[in-house]
Amino acid sequence: MSSRARSRWIRAAVWFLSITYAIGAPVTAYAELKAHVISQRFDYSPSFIYWICAIQLFCAVALWVSGVSRWAAAVLTVITVGAVFSHFRIGSPVTALPAVAYTAIQSWYGLSKSP
After folding, report:
1. I want to staple 25 with a disulfide (CB 3.0 to 4.6 A). Which of 36, 53, 68, 76 is the partner?
2. Strands, DSSP E only, in 25-84?
C-alpha cells in the first residue's frame, strides 16, 4: 500500500473514531443520566460510566492533536478492551462485537504512522 493510500486510511480512521465517540459518549452519558440502563446492566456505578464517557469525549478530540493522538488511541483501546470483557462477564458476547471492531481500528491506528 502506498504511503498516500495509507494516509487516507489513517485519516478515515481518525474521522470515524472522533465522530462516533463525539456523538456516542454524550448520548451514553445522557441515557445513563435518564435511565441508568448501562450501570444497571453491567453493575457499575453511574459515576464510573460518566467518567468513561468524559474520557472518551476528551480522547475523541485528542485524536486530532498530533503529539497525543496515539496516547488517545491507546486510552480508547483500553476502554474498549474493558467493554469487551464487561460484555463477556454479563454473558452477552455478541453485543461485544462493536467493541472488538473499535479495538481493532484503534490498535491499527496506534501502530500506524500518523498522517
Report:
1. 53
2. none
Q: What is the pLDDT of residue 69?
A: 93
Read off the pLDDT of residues 84-104 as tens digits, 9 standing for 90 and up. 999 999 999 999 999 999 999
Closest CA to 83 of 99, 107, 59: 99
Q: Give the residue from 63, 66, 62, 31 showing the smallest Cα distance to 49.
A: 31
Q: Residue 26, CB half-sphere, CA atoms under 13 Å: how many? A: 7
For residue 84, what are the contacts with CB-CB under 8 A and spacing of at least 6? 96, 99, 100, 103
Question: Contacts by 34-43 with C-beta closer than 8 Å and gap 24+?
Answer: 41/90, 42/86, 42/89, 42/90, 43/90
